[in-house]
């Protein structure tokens, strides 16, 4: 193979984790299929609540209501992953998620759904999924060697990009054409893939001193995190980005009253984030060769903040009537600004994915296996909890101000806080992937 061909291949995603470990490949495929179905349900519940209430604040509360149960489940699931066979823990949590999704479909088919039932089942899904994600993340470093962890994280980005790109768009179409019952039912079928990926794994017991589930185990995890400055700061930076730069909960209202297009616009904006994730993952070859991963996290989150500011400016233009047809509603859309908004969200998705690759690699390489479940539990709480706090931030400000105000202000806050915190933590900028230190 010529040097030019080798260099060209080096720009693209590294597929070696899939060939090195068939178990990882099956887990990746199953998780991607289940995640695709999960995105269908997430978007469908948002649209369902908006249809029943007509309230953006009610949509934001879908995410907020699941925050505390998800936090508790993530922490408890991390302790379980450090105390028992991780395959078994993940299978039990996946069964709970599957059962709640089946109940969603049954309620929709029988026209028995209420706002409160949608809230309750979304809470169960959030809690069980946080256990699945924490346990699965703790499993991955046991399936592949350390030097392939960045490539594995990029592959997770491809899976996330595919599921989030296709899921919301498909959800918008399914809801508009077939209704909510069919949308939830498709998720039930796709979730079977997760069981395939988990069931075929070997038994994976934690290495080293096995902890016992309880307050002492949780305290040990927090003590480790307090000493792990690099891991702690990446958590804080991600919370900042997701709290002040997560406009997902605004998409239904943006599609209904600001940009037009209704559910199709909601799906398109959500899918555009995934396009950015997917493209950045496909060209992630150079990311795996970067040693200063702390600096990479800083730059990626700053890029995310810039993209969120640009998204806010597009919404400002829409509120001023730029490029708008005579009427903006579900059938009359401001196509020009929808495209601009989608581009901004695609850039945001790409930047967030680059940050996620570095953060995941740092977590899996620098944290010892005996502590990995608990730290992954905290990590999942941060990753999934930040957007829920962000949903409250965006929904509340949009209710009392305007739809464009939360992303515009939030992007500026991200840029300011990230620059300040990393400047005060030179050790984080100097983090070396070849000598990982938590």
Q: Quick gist of this model?
A:
The protein is mostly helical and 438 residues long.
Description of the molecule:
- The protein has a single domain (14-429), classed as MFS general substrate transporter like domains (Growth Hormone, Chain: A, Up-down Bundle), CATH 1.20.1250.20.
- Helix 6 (86-109) runs antiparallel to helix 7 (115-143), helix 14 (262-282) packs across helix 16 and helix 15 packs antiparallel against helix 16 (335-366).
- It has 438 residues and is an all-alpha fold.
- It is 79% helix and 0% strand.
- The protein starts with a helix and ends in a 9-residue tail after the last helix.
Give the SSE layout.
Blueprint: H1 3-11, H2 16-20, H3 22-53, H4 56-65, H5 67-81, H6 86-109, H7 115-143, H8 149-177, H9 180-190, H10 192-199, H11 215-227, H12 229-244, H13 251-258, H14 262-282, H15 293-319, H16 335-366, H17 369-400, H18 405-423, H19 426-429
Helix pairs in contact: 3-4, 3-7, 3-8, 3-9, 3-10, 4-7, 4-17, 5-7, 5-17, 6-7, 6-9, 6-10, 7-17, 8-14, 8-16, 12-15, 12-17, 12-18, 13-14, 14-16, 15-16, 15-18
